[in-house]
Amino acid sequence: MKLIELMQKRYATKKFDGETIPESKIEELKDLIKLVPSSFGLQPFKVKIISNKELKEKLAPASWNQTQITTCSHLLVFCAYTNIKERVNEYEQLLIKNGTPPEKAKAYTDTMRGFNEGLNTDSKNTWAQKQVYLAVENALLGATELGFDSCPMEGFIPADFSKILQLTEDLIPTVLVPIGYAADTPRTKIRFENKDLFF
Questions:
Q1: CA–CA separation, 38 vs 45, rounded Å?
Q2: CA geometry: angle 80, 83, 87, nearest 5 deg
Q3: Rounded to 5 degrees, what are φ and ψ at 174?
Q4: Per-residue pLDDT reduced to its tens digit, 75-86
Q5: Where are the alpha helices (DSSP H) in 10-120?
Q6: Which of 85, 151, 175, 194 lies at a CB distance of 3.0 to 4.6 Å from 78, suitable for a disulfide?
Protein backbone atom coordinates (compact mmCIF):
# COMPACT_ATOMS: atom_id res chain seq x y z
CA MET A 1 0.00 0.00 0.00
CA LYS A 2 1.34 3.45 -0.90
CA LEU A 3 1.90 6.01 1.84
CA ILE A 4 -0.95 8.21 0.59
CA GLU A 5 -3.29 5.22 0.77
CA LEU A 6 -2.21 4.46 4.35
CA MET A 7 -2.84 8.07 5.33
CA GLN A 8 -6.26 8.09 3.70
CA LYS A 9 -7.23 4.80 5.37
CA ARG A 10 -6.01 5.66 8.88
CA TYR A 11 -8.48 7.27 11.24
CA ALA A 12 -8.90 7.85 14.97
CA THR A 13 -10.77 4.74 16.07
CA LYS A 14 -13.13 5.41 18.96
CA LYS A 15 -14.01 1.81 19.82
CA PHE A 16 -12.25 -1.50 19.28
CA ASP A 17 -13.75 -4.99 19.14
CA GLY A 18 -11.54 -6.41 21.91
CA GLU A 19 -9.76 -8.94 19.69
CA THR A 20 -6.08 -9.41 20.58
CA ILE A 21 -3.41 -8.45 18.08
CA PRO A 22 -0.86 -11.27 17.61
CA GLU A 23 2.44 -10.62 19.38
CA SER A 24 4.29 -11.02 16.08
CA LYS A 25 2.45 -7.94 14.81
CA ILE A 26 3.30 -6.03 17.99
CA GLU A 27 6.97 -6.83 17.40
CA GLU A 28 6.69 -5.53 13.84
CA LEU A 29 5.08 -2.34 15.12
CA LYS A 30 7.96 -1.86 17.58
CA ASP A 31 10.40 -2.09 14.67
CA LEU A 32 8.47 0.57 12.77
CA ILE A 33 8.35 2.89 15.77
CA LYS A 34 12.07 2.65 16.44
CA LEU A 35 12.87 3.72 12.86
CA VAL A 36 11.46 7.19 13.54
CA PRO A 37 13.72 10.16 12.83
CA SER A 38 14.60 12.20 15.92
CA SER A 39 16.82 15.09 16.91
CA PHE A 40 20.46 13.89 16.99
CA GLY A 41 19.06 10.39 16.50
CA LEU A 42 18.67 10.17 20.29
CA GLN A 43 15.09 8.88 20.37
CA PRO A 44 14.31 10.48 23.75
CA PHE A 45 11.19 8.45 24.37
CA LYS A 46 10.08 5.13 25.80
CA VAL A 47 6.82 3.31 25.13
CA LYS A 48 4.96 1.35 27.78
CA ILE A 49 2.87 -1.36 26.08
CA ILE A 50 -0.11 -2.57 28.10
CA SER A 51 -2.25 -5.58 27.20
CA ASN A 52 -3.43 -6.52 30.70
CA LYS A 53 -7.21 -6.00 30.91
CA GLU A 54 -7.25 -5.16 34.61
CA LEU A 55 -4.54 -2.54 34.22
CA LYS A 56 -6.34 -0.91 31.29
CA GLU A 57 -9.51 -0.75 33.40
CA LYS A 58 -7.53 0.83 36.23
CA LEU A 59 -6.22 3.48 33.82
CA ALA A 60 -9.64 4.23 32.33
CA PRO A 61 -10.74 6.83 34.92
CA ALA A 62 -7.47 8.70 34.32
CA SER A 63 -8.54 9.07 30.69
CA TRP A 64 -12.13 10.08 31.43
CA ASN A 65 -13.37 6.53 30.74
CA GLN A 66 -12.96 6.85 27.00
CA THR A 67 -13.87 3.51 25.43
CA GLN A 68 -10.63 3.20 23.44
CA ILE A 69 -8.71 2.42 26.63
CA THR A 70 -10.69 -0.63 27.71
CA THR A 71 -11.66 -2.02 24.29
CA CYS A 72 -8.23 -1.89 22.64
CA SER A 73 -5.96 -4.89 22.29
CA HIS A 74 -2.87 -3.01 23.46
CA LEU A 75 -2.44 0.44 24.93
CA LEU A 76 0.75 2.25 23.99
CA VAL A 77 1.79 4.94 26.47
CA PHE A 78 4.34 7.16 24.74
CA CYS A 79 6.59 8.81 27.32
CA ALA A 80 9.16 11.54 26.85
CA TYR A 81 12.48 10.34 28.31
CA THR A 82 14.10 13.38 29.88
CA ASN A 83 17.33 11.85 31.20
CA ILE A 84 19.18 13.22 28.19
CA LYS A 85 22.60 12.90 29.82
CA GLU A 86 22.13 9.16 30.24
CA ARG A 87 20.71 8.79 26.74
CA VAL A 88 23.73 10.56 25.24
CA ASN A 89 26.10 8.25 27.12
CA GLU A 90 24.18 5.23 25.84
CA TYR A 91 24.21 6.63 22.31
CA GLU A 92 27.99 7.11 22.41
CA GLN A 93 28.43 3.44 23.28
CA LEU A 94 25.98 2.47 20.55
CA LEU A 95 28.00 4.43 17.99
CA ILE A 96 31.19 2.69 19.05
CA LYS A 97 29.50 -0.72 19.01
CA ASN A 98 28.43 -0.04 15.41
CA GLY A 99 31.92 0.84 14.21
CA THR A 100 32.37 4.55 14.88
CA PRO A 101 35.90 5.27 16.17
CA PRO A 102 35.70 6.23 19.88
CA GLU A 103 37.20 9.69 19.32
CA LYS A 104 34.64 10.50 16.61
CA ALA A 105 31.80 9.14 18.73
CA LYS A 106 32.90 11.34 21.63
CA ALA A 107 33.23 14.43 19.44
CA TYR A 108 29.70 13.94 18.11
CA THR A 109 28.12 13.18 21.47
CA ASP A 110 29.93 16.10 23.13
CA THR A 111 27.84 18.32 20.84
CA MET A 112 24.75 16.66 22.30
CA ARG A 113 26.04 17.16 25.82
CA GLY A 114 26.50 20.85 25.13
CA PHE A 115 22.97 21.05 23.79
CA ASN A 116 21.61 19.30 26.89
CA GLU A 117 23.50 21.57 29.27
CA GLY A 118 22.00 24.61 27.55
CA LEU A 119 18.43 23.53 28.34
CA ASN A 120 16.54 24.22 31.53
CA THR A 121 14.13 21.58 32.83
CA ASP A 122 11.07 22.95 31.02
CA SER A 123 12.93 23.28 27.71
CA LYS A 124 14.33 19.76 28.06
CA ASN A 125 10.88 18.32 28.71
CA THR A 126 9.36 20.22 25.77
CA TRP A 127 12.15 19.09 23.43
CA ALA A 128 11.74 15.44 24.43
CA GLN A 129 7.96 15.60 24.09
CA LYS A 130 8.27 16.97 20.55
CA GLN A 131 10.24 13.87 19.63
CA VAL A 132 7.44 11.70 21.04
CA TYR A 133 5.02 13.05 18.44
CA LEU A 134 7.30 11.92 15.63
CA ALA A 135 7.27 8.39 17.04
CA VAL A 136 3.48 8.50 17.39
CA GLU A 137 3.12 9.14 13.66
CA ASN A 138 5.12 5.99 12.91
CA ALA A 139 2.86 4.04 15.28
CA LEU A 140 -0.34 5.30 13.64
CA LEU A 141 0.73 4.61 10.07
CA GLY A 142 2.49 1.41 11.11
CA ALA A 143 -0.70 0.07 12.66
CA THR A 144 -2.58 0.72 9.42
CA GLU A 145 0.15 -0.95 7.38
CA LEU A 146 0.03 -4.01 9.65
CA GLY A 147 -3.74 -4.37 9.35
CA PHE A 148 -5.12 -2.93 12.57
CA ASP A 149 -6.38 0.40 13.85
CA SER A 150 -5.30 3.11 16.27
CA CYS A 151 -6.21 6.38 17.95
CA PRO A 152 -3.86 9.13 19.15
CA MET A 153 -5.04 10.52 22.49
CA GLU A 154 -3.99 13.48 24.59
CA GLY A 155 -7.14 13.24 26.71
CA PHE A 156 -5.73 11.74 29.89
CA ILE A 157 -4.18 12.79 33.19
CA PRO A 158 -0.39 12.25 32.95
CA ALA A 159 0.19 12.45 36.71
CA ASP A 160 -2.35 9.68 37.34
CA PHE A 161 -0.83 7.50 34.64
CA SER A 162 2.62 8.03 36.17
CA LYS A 163 1.35 6.97 39.58
CA ILE A 164 -0.61 3.93 38.40
CA LEU A 165 2.21 2.71 36.14
CA GLN A 166 4.87 3.60 38.76
CA LEU A 167 6.93 5.50 36.21
CA THR A 168 10.25 7.08 37.15
CA GLU A 169 10.50 10.87 37.24
CA ASP A 170 12.41 10.99 33.95
CA LEU A 171 9.43 9.54 32.05
CA ILE A 172 6.59 11.91 31.14
CA PRO A 173 3.44 10.29 29.71
CA THR A 174 2.73 12.41 26.64
CA VAL A 175 0.45 10.62 24.16
CA LEU A 176 -1.65 7.45 24.33
CA VAL A 177 -2.11 5.22 21.29
CA PRO A 178 -4.64 2.42 21.80
CA ILE A 179 -4.40 -0.16 19.01
CA GLY A 180 -6.68 -2.99 17.96
CA TYR A 181 -9.39 -3.85 15.46
CA ALA A 182 -12.05 -1.21 14.92
CA ALA A 183 -15.64 -1.70 16.03
CA ASP A 184 -16.74 1.64 14.62
CA THR A 185 -16.92 3.23 11.19
CA PRO A 186 -14.56 5.95 9.95
CA ARG A 187 -16.07 9.29 9.08
CA THR A 188 -15.15 11.21 5.95
CA LYS A 189 -11.83 12.97 6.41
CA ILE A 190 -12.19 16.72 6.60
CA ARG A 191 -9.04 18.68 5.87
CA PHE A 192 -8.29 22.28 4.96
CA GLU A 193 -7.38 22.96 1.35
CA ASN A 194 -3.79 23.47 0.27
CA LYS A 195 -4.35 27.21 -0.09
CA ASP A 196 -5.19 27.38 3.60
CA LEU A 197 -2.08 25.49 4.71
CA PHE A 198 0.73 26.44 2.36
CA PHE A 199 2.00 29.91 1.48
A1: 10
A2: 95
A3: -120, -45
A4: 999 999 999 999
A5: 23-34, 53-59, 67-71, 84-97, 102-117
A6: 175
